[in-house]
Task: inverse folding
């Protein structure tokens, strides 16, 4: 590499900065560390002074954090490349920085020499000033570098004759291969060996686990290429192949990659057992359905309708697991948010959540780290099983006397509905006959009488403060039969609903007359 790539390291922890400095032999690898900063403000001054090609920055820092640094640096120096360091709990912030032009990220627990060097070399390939000319080194490698930069969106001023010489055919296709210990040379050879006519194949952005192959072929070769890829997918276990839609011009490569290949990478997360995804045979997604209402879920949970709440939740999770075009990060974020809310709800409802508190960060990190949907769902369902166990053991340990206030509050909230003691007992996980006996002993009246008193009290308020008809009021307070409402009302108050309203009206009229005479 000609000019050394200049790097600035930004982190408020000196040990992290020193660790990064000592991970690799910077000069031997073609890099030069031009400075260190402990916050974003100091970093901006050093960027202006030393003009680094790459900035490696933490997210959480004093004075100016990594998010503001990314925004300010990309605005002032659009060509600068930024690599973000992050811990798991800050990963949602990292994702937001990509909108401002971050090149890549490294999770701190996974920070090591090989990973750091891999990311640095990947980012260097995006920097035009540090590229060799197309004719300076081995032609195929040089062209692959140029093509890698083109797929990332850099417009290289490459001689069109050189490209035409190495890309002579009229059709192109991108083929993604994901697996373990991939050898790009072997992959290219395997494809060419199966097809009689020669055509160029380039390996782009290769790593041990992922390679993107660019094929340049003639239209009549497409079917043979499809068959070869299908054969390779069937014959290479633990490997996933992706054939993106063919295109006619190399200038379309980035668009095809962004709109086709990245879409198929999402499919791989949701369908980990599939060995082949082809642009013309993609599996169908679940049809779009209503959004998940978190508030509705929370209310059901607060009302102790656990079975209904969990069914509502799991139906939506099953739906999301079949929405293959959704970003896996969104899916993981949704589940992480549910984990957080359930733990908060359980604590507010006085359940023993000590175990969940100790494990919650492992749930978050395991969900975030999962490489496919099955791993995510295993973690999430394991969490729900623990939650159900905690609820069950907590309810068994509690006596109805501790929950009587909750039962009364529930009746107060749901008196307009057709309530039955058996349903309430089931709702609160109590034996119905025991609850009936306990209710009568400790509340001085039976359940039905208490419910009637609540309803009649509400009807008296409506009779006094509204002009709603008496027949409508009976339905509003939970009585399906108007005559039964009138009978209960008279038994409790000593008069009919109509008489009660007339007496109230007469009382109000007398009070108004008395007030008027006093004024005179």
Result:
């Amino acid at each position: 590499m000609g000019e050394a790539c200049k790097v600035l390291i930004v982190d408020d922890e000196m040990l992290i900065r020193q660790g990064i400095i000592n991970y690799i032999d910077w000069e031997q690898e073609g890099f030069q560390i031009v400075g260190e900063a402990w916050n974003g403000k100091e970093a901006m001054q050093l960027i202006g002074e030393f003009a680094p090609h790459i900035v490696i920055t933490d997210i959480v820092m004093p004075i100016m954090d990594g998010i503001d640094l990314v925004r300010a640096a990309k605005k002032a120096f659009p060509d600068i490349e930024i690599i973000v360091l992050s811990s798991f709990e800050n990963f949602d912030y990292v994702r937001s920085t990509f909108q401002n032009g971050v090149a890549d990220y490294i999770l701190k627990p996974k920070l090591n020499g090989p990973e750091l060097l891999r990311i640095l070399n990947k980012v260097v390939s995006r920097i035009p000033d540090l590229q060799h000319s197309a004719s300076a080194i081995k032609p195929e490698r040089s062209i692959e570098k140029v093509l890698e930069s083109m797929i990332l969106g850099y417009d290289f001023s490459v001689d069109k004759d050189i490209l035409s010489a190495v890309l002579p055919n009229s059709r192109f296709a991108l083929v993604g291969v994901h697996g373990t210990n991939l050898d790009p040379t072997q992959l290219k050879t395997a494809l060419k060996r199966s097809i009689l006519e020669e055509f160029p194949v380039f390996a782009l952005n290769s790593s041990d686990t992922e390679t993107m192959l660019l094929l340049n072929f003639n239209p009549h070769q497409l079917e043979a290429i499809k068959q070869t890829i299908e054969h390779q997918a069937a014959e290479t276990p633990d490997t996933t192949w992706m054939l993106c839609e063919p295109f006619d011009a190399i200038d379309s490569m980035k668009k095809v990659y962004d709109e086709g290949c990245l879409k198929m990478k999402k499919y791989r997360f949701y369908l980990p057992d599939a060995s082949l995804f082809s642009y013309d045979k993609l599996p169908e997604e679940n049809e779009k359905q209503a959004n998940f209402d978190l508030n509705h879920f929370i209310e059901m949970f607060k009302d102790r309708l656990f079975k209904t709440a969990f069914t509502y939740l799991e139906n939506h999770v099953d739906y999301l697991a079949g929405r293959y075009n959704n970003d896996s990060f969104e899916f993981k974020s949704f589940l992480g948010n549910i984990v957080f809310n359930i733990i908060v709800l359980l604590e507010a409802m006085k359940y023993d959540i000590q175990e969940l508190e100790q494990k919650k960060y492992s749930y978050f990190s395991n969900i975030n780290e999962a490489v496919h949907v099955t791993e995510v769902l295993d973690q999430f369902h394991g969490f729900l099983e623990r939650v159900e166990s905690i609820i069950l053991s907590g309810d068994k340990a509690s006596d109805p006397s501790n929950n009587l206030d909750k039962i009364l509050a529930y009746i107060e909230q749901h008196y307009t509905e057709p309530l039955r003691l058996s349903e309430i007992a089931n709702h609160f996980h109590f034996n119905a006959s025991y609850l009936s006996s306990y209710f009568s002993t400790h509340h001085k009246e039976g359940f039905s009488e208490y419910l009637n008193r609540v309803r009649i009290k509400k009807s008296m308020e409506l009779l006094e403060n509204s002009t709603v008809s008496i027949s409508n009021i009976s339905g509003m307070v939970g009585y399906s039969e108007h005559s039964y409402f009138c009978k209960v009302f008279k038994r409790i108050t000593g008069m009919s609903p109509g008489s009660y309203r007339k007496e109230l009206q007469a009382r109000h009229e007398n009070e108004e007359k008395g007030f008027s005479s006093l004024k005179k």
Observations:
- The beta strands are 5-10, 31-37, 54-57, 81-86, 104-107, 171-178, 201-204, 210-217, 240-243, 276-278.
- The chain is about 55% helix and 10% strand.
